[in-house]
Write a structure and sequence with these properties.
Elements lengths: L22 H13 L4 H9 L12 H29 L8 H35 L1
Helix pairs in contact: 1-2, 3-4
Length: about 130
């Protein structure tokens, strides 16, 4: 994935341009960028070059729940990895209970499977509703 200061074709953006906005204009920019799910900078760049800025529909509520759950899992896994790396660099034994780790992995598998089934159920309901229209 390219850096924020790098275009998709690899060209690095090095020139900065300062622009001033009134408070109400800035709030409008923030709102429009948020609706388009892009940064304010990207929104301004697209508008300046007359590129399309599409307002995406809000994600289903289930996706926010999934995001929150996956974020919590990621935080926990990162803490485990950080502790293991720190212990390894210090020449200490990595103190991870394999049984507890296995239980965590099994719990994650079950949660992921449940989430997949919920997502499939939502997609099926969405398709059925589209067929009714």
């Amino acid at each position: 994935m390219p850096k924020k200061t790098q275009r998709t074709d690899g060209v690095i953006r090095t020139i900065r341009l300062s622009v001033r906005f009134a408070a109400d204009e800035y709030e409008q920019l923030k709102q429009k960028a948020k609706e388009g799910r892009v940064s304010i900078t990207e929104f301004i760049r697209r508008a300046a070059f007359r590129r399309r800025v599409v307002e995406l529909p809000p994600p289903p509520q289930l996706n926010w729940k999934l995001y929150t759950e996956l974020n919590a899992i990621g935080v926990n896994l990162n803490q485990i990895a950080t502790a293991a790396t720190r212990a390894s660099k210090a020449g200490e034994a990595v103190n991870i209970d394999p049984e507890q780790l296995q239980n965590l992995v099994e719990s994650l598998r079950a949660s992921i499977k449940e989430t997949q089934m919920q997502l499939l159920d939502c997609e099926i309901r969405d398709v059925e509703q589209e067929d009714l229209i």
